[in-house]
Write a structure and sequence with these properties.
The structure is a homodimer. Chain A has helices at 6-16, 24-32, 51-62, 72-79, 100-105, 123-135, 153-158, 174-183, 221-224, 244-252; strands at residues 18-22, 38-44, 66-70, 88-93, 97-99, 113-117, 140-144, 168-171, 187-191, 197-198, 208-212, 229-232. Chain A is of the alpha/beta class. Chain A folds into two domains: 18-93, 2-Layer Sandwich (60s Ribosomal Protein L30, Chain: A), CATH 3.30.1330.30; 99-252, 3-Layer(aba) Sandwich (Alpha/beta knot), CATH 3.40.1280. In chain A, helix 2 (24-32) runs parallel beside helix 3 and helix 6 (123-135) runs parallel beside helix 10 (244-252). The termini of chain A are far apart. At the A-B interface, helix 6 and helix 10 of A face helix 6 and helix 10 of B.
Chain lengths: 257, 257
C-alpha cells in the first residue's frame, strides 16, 4: 500500500484508534460493556483456564470478537506490561482515541478546548483528570508518551469508566506538538501558581490548550517555552497548589458554576 | 469546677481544640513546622531510641513542649490507633479546630459557607477535600465521628499541610447538628446528581452548609431529611458523578472561576 493512499490512511487511523488494555478485571468489564467497540481479545496460552478466562472467551464469541492466542512473550509485546497483564489483553477500537497529529489535521470548526498533560506520573491523578475533563466537557486530552502515566488498569479504574468516553490524543513529546497547535492559531495556556493573570480573566473564544504540569515541579521548561500565556487560580488561606484533577475540573467547569 | 463556669468553658474549649496526630513522619514534620502550636508530645517507653525519636525529643525541648512517656497501652489510649501510631503521638492546639456545637454558639456575623461530610470513608478523598476547601476559601468542614474517615496520617498527607489550616468542626452524628444549623437560619444544600436545581443557580448570601455524600451511595437518608434543598452539578458526556474533592472545589471556587 502506498503511504498516502486513502486505503493506507484509513487503516492507519483505525490502528491509531486502538487502545490496548490489560489485566483480567478491566478486560472482563470492557467485554461486558456492550457500548464499547471491542476489536480483538488476546490470551496467553499459559493461562489456567479458570472461570474468568472461560467467561471472556464466551463473551468474545457472543460478540463475534476475534480471539488470538500467544505465548507469554507474544502477549507481553501486545500488552507492553508483562508484569501486570495477567495473561490477558484487549484491543478497543475507540473512535475518540487517536493521535494529536491526526486531530490537528482535522481541527473542528468550533473553538475547542483541550488539556495537555506534562509530567503527570501518578495513575490515580491521570484517571481523575480524565473523569473531571470528561464531566466538564473538555474536547480532548493530549497525553504524551514521554513523562506521563499511560492508560493502564489503575488509570481506567480511577477514571470510573470515562477513559473510554474521553477523546485522548496521543503524542510522543509534548513541546513539539504544542508548537504545531500554536501554528494553527491555538493559544497555549500553562497553569502556574506564579502567573500574574488568572484563569477567570481569560476571555474570548479561540482554540485553547491548557497545560497541566507536575504537582511538585510544575510545567517543564521546554513546554513552558511553548506557552503563549501563563494563568493561575487564586487560592485562599495561603494554599500553594491544588490537586491536578481539581485544576482540570475548575478549567472545564469554569463557564457554568 | 462548675460545668458552666467561665473557667470550665475555657478549659473545655482548649481541649476541644486539640488535634492528636500520630505516626513518626507526621509527628516529626509537625514538630519541625514552627507555625503549628504544639501542646504535648507523647512517647511509648517501649520505643527504640533511634535518631527519629531523638530528633523529636530535641525539637520538643527546644520548643518547650511537654514530653509524656507512656506504656504501650497508655499511648494507644491517646493515639486511638495502636496499629499505626508507631509509639508516637502529638497534641496540636489548633485555634481552628473545635466542635460544631461551639461554632454554632458563636456564629460569625458574615454569612459563612461550610461543607458537611456524610460517609466520606476514603482518607485520600478526605485529605483532598480539606485541601480543595481550604484553597477555595470555605469557612469550615463539619466532620462527624460516625461514618467518616478521621484525621490520620494518610489524611494529613493527602491534605498537603492544609489539615492544620482549615477550620474542622467535629460532631458525633451529622443529622442532629444539621438540624441545629437549620434552626439558626442556615440553608442545608445536599449535593445530588438527581437534583433538579443546579449549584450555579444558587444565589443570595446566607449561611449555607453544603452536604457531600458518599461517592457510591450519595447522601444518606437521615441527612437528606435535614436538607432544605438539593443541588446538582450539570455534567457533560453522560458522566454520572465527580470525585468528591472535585465537587468540594467546584463549590468553593464557584464565585471566582
Amino acid at each position: 500500500m502506498v503511504e498516502d493512499s486513502p486505503e493506507y490512511l484509513q487503516k492507519r487511523a483505525f490502528y491509531d484508534s486502538l487502545l490496548t488494555i490489560y489485566g483480567r478485571k478491566p478486560v472482563l468489564e470492557a467485554l461486558e460493556d456492550l457500548s464499547l467497540p471491542v476489536h480483538k481479545l488476546h490470551l496467553a496460552r499459559s493461562n489456567r483456564r479458570d472461570h474468568l478466562i472461560a467467561r471472556m472467551e464466551q463473551l468474545a464469541t457472543e460478540r463475534q470478537v476475534e480471539i488470538a492466542h500467544w505465548d507469554r512473550k507474544g502477549l507481553s509485546r501486545i500488552s507492553k506490561n508483562a508484569r501486570q497483564d495477567q495473561g490477558v489483553a484487549l484491543d478497543l477500537a475507540l473512535p475518540h482515541y487517536g493521535t494529536a497529529e491526526a486531530f490537528l489535521q482535522q481541527l473542528p470548526e468550533k473553538p475547542c478546548e483541550l488539556l495537555a498533560l506534562d509530567g503527570i506520573t501518578n495513575p490515580q491523578n491521570l484517571g481523575m483528570i480524565i473523569r473531571s475533563a470528561c464531566a466538564g466537557g473538555m474536547d480532548g486530552i493530549i497525553l504524551p508518551k514521554k513523562g506521563c502515566a499511560q492508560m493502564d488498569p489503575l488509570v481506567i479504574k480511577a477514571s470510573t469508566g470515562t477513559a473510554f468516553k474521553m477523546r485522548l490524543l496521543r503524542c510522543e513529546k509534548l513541546a513539539p506538538i504544542l508548537a504545531k497547535f500554536r501554528e494553527q492559531g491555538a493559544r497555549i495556556c500553562g497553569l502556574s501558581s506564579h502567573a500574574r493573570d488568572t484563569l477567570a480573566g481569560l476571555d474570548g473564544r479561540q482554540p485553547t490548550v491548557f497545560v497541566l504540569g507536575n504537582e511538585t515541579r510544575g510545567v517543564s521548561d521546554d513546554v513552558a517555552g511553548q506557552c503563549t500565556q501563563l494563568l493561575r487560580i487564586p487560592m485562599q488561606n495561603g494554599v500553594e497548589s491544588l490537586n491536578v484533577a481539581v485544576t482540570a475540573a475548575l478549567i472545564g467547569f469554569r463557564r457554568q458554576t
